[in-house]
Design a protein that fits this description.
By secondary structure, this protein is α/β, with parallel strands linked by helices. It folds into three domains: 9-100, Arc Repressor Mutant, subunit A, CATH 1.10.10.10; 106-174 and 285-317, 3-Layer(aba) Sandwich (D-Maltodextrin-Binding Protein, domain 2), CATH 3.40.190; 175-283, D-Maltodextrin-Binding Protein, domain 2, CATH 3.40.190. It is built from eleven helices and twelve strands. Strands 3, 4, 5, 6, 7, 10, 11 and 12 form an eight-stranded mixed sheet that branches. A two-stranded antiparallel sheet has the order 1-2. Strands 8-9 form a two-stranded parallel ribbon. The model is unreliable at 1-7 (pLDDT under 50). This is LysR family transcriptional regulator. Keywords: DNA-binding, Transcription, Transcription regulation. Belongs to the LysR transcriptional regulatory family. GO terms for molecular function: DNA binding; DNA-binding transcription factor activity.
């Protein structure tokens, strides 16, 4: 493998050999019972293997192999070590397969709770139908926590909203929702009927209302705070909800108003959704990943494969399953 090239799945065993040559020596001696045959199986000269075994035994302060007739065998210490060495080699091979194999790798994915009901299962089902060997580690968490995990190297990809704009993370928009002012159906702002719902209301129309907001750290809360700031007011907070569905329910109960993504299936019974005029009321949803050059400069092939799939399929999956 040349400098600058990424390894592929066929290199997994070779890389494990680089990481654990001494373990392989012990295992080869146990398997062959002969230094020369062990050296041949390892692809090295017999004197090199002999010297290496001598060094490792000196460093450990105990004998691992001993002569037995015309061959060699493991000592009691060597026999105790052998199953651990074999497991370690297998773990290393598996680890390198996950790191280098596009069809047998692992993807660590973090995503918004609202995307975990339908969007993420739909994406995983479709992707696994094409690539059944890829495994996933999933973390369902709010926007801010999700981006922190991604930045710290605890995840490969994030499905989230809003998308970051700073250095270190790259993003691709999959779908853009519009934010709406959600009010109880008997609210004065909703009395204009269809015309009011078409024309919408200014961003400051509910400046004197009590608001139902999502808790800090949620992406919609971040967008709402920014929108209200640009509209020139600080909302009075009646309740802080954990999720969008709860906030809608509280509005339907007449407990306040809220700014939430437009509901794909229409406004929740008991509420009216009003477009916002004069403010940037968009909510982009997308996939985020470490920018090239960060995260050690290496992206496992399975991660790139899934990201490309999400960018291709996600725009058709997300619009009908969020909010």
């Amino acid at each position: 493998m040349k400098d600058g090239e990424h390894p592929d799945g066929s290199d997994a065993d070779a890389l494990a050999r680089v990481l654990a040559p001494r373990l392989r020596m012990v295992a080869a001696v146990a398997a062959t019972g002969h230094i020369t045959r062990a050296a041949e199986s390892l692809g090295m000269p017999q004197p090199t293997l002999s010297r290496a075994l001598t060094r490792v035994q000196e460093e450990l302060g105990m004998a691992l192999v001993e002569r037995s007739g015309r061959g060699v065998r493991l000592t009691r210490a060597g026999r105790l070590l052998l199953p651990h060495a074999e497991r370690a080699l297998q773990d290393l091979r598996q680890g390198m397969t996950e790191l280098t194999g596009a069809e047998e790798g692992r993807v660590a994915l973090t995503f918004l709770p609202t995307l975990g009901v339908e969007v993420v299962p739909a994406l995983l089902r479709g992707f696994r139908a094409e690539h059944p060997g890829v495994r996933f580690s999933l973390a369902q968490e709010p926007w801010a926590q999700s981006l922190r995990r991604l930045s710290a190297g605890g995840a490969d990809l994030a499905l989230t909203s809003p998308l970051p704009s700073g250095r270190g993370l790259a993003a691709a928009t999959l779908h853009t929702q519009m934010l709406r002012l959600v009010v109880p159906e008997e609210h004065p702002l909703a009395r204009g009927g269809d015309r009011a719902r078409e024309r919408g209301v200014p961003g400051s129309a509910a400046a004197h209302e009590e608001f139902i907001l999502l808790k800090p750290g949620r992406g919609v809360r971040h967008l709402t705070d920014r929108l209200n700031e640009r509209a020139g007011f600080t909302p009075r907070v009646a309740f802080e909800a954990d999720d969008i569905a709860t906030a809608r329910g509280l509005v339907a109960a007449g407990l306040g108003v809220s700014v939430l993504p437009a509901r794909p299936r229409g406004a929740l019974s008991g509420t009216v959704e009003l477009p916002l005029r004069g403010v940037d009321a968009r909510r982009p949803i997308g996939v985020v990943w470490p920018e090239e050059g960060s995260g050690g400069g290496y992206e496992p092939p399975a991660v790139a494969l899934f990201r490309d799939y999400v960018r291709r399929v996600g725009p058709g999956v997300i619009p009908d399953m969020t909010g």
